[in-house]
Design brief:
The protein is of the alpha+beta class. Helices cover about 45% and strands about 15% of the residues. The chain has one domain. The longest helix has 18 residues.
Length: about 160
């Protein structure tokens, strides 16, 4: 089994967080969609999750999906799924990790910052569509960064796994 390039991914995320302003504050769904797309071919399993401190996070994203009229932040809110923060969880060598623009860490460490996520997972298609719409997200995130974020992540993550 190939080794996971933890150090290279952590360094990439440090650079990413410095380079792209407010990525986790209004751009977390964008970051999650980019990370998920680039990590998916390299990990054993992957989930795209979110949390909200005022909502019942025992709700299941997969169970309410059929009630979502259109894939928008507001439509997900109407079925009880709200977005305080969005991130990626992935499984490598039978262990789960959490990743967002602020770093790669254990799920427990991320939960202590943001709280446990809703049960279930968004699909890559869903999070891509949600992330591309500015409606419902914090406006401090500058969306013109997105194309450069995609290129930067693809290059850095690909090279990290090639070198592993």
């Amino acid at each position: 089994m190939k080794r996971f390039p933890f150090t290279k991914i952590r360094t990439f995320l440090e650079d990413f967080d410095i380079t792209f302003k407010n990525a986790n504050y209004g751009g977390c769904a964008v970051v999650a969609s980019i990370l998920a797309k680039n990590l998916l071919p390299h990990v054993d399993d992957l989930k795209i999750v979110c949390t909200h401190t005022w909502y019942d996070t025992t709700l299941n994203i997969d169970s309410v999906r059929d009630k979502v009229k259109d894939n928008t932040v507001h439509s997900w809110n109407s079925v009880g799924i709200a977005f305080n923060h969005v991130w990626v969880e992935f499984k490598w060598n039978n262990r789960w990790y959490a990743v967002d623009s602020e770093g790669l860490r254990s799920r427990r460490a991320l939960y202590s910052n943001w709280s446990k996520p809703f049960v279930g997972s968004f699909t890559l298609k869903e999070i891509n569509q949600l992330a591309m719409s500015p409606s419902g997200w914090n406006s401090t995130f500058k969306r013109k960064q997105i194309p450069h974020m995609r290129k930067f992540a693809k290059r850095q993550i690909s090279s990290a796994f090639i070198a592993a």
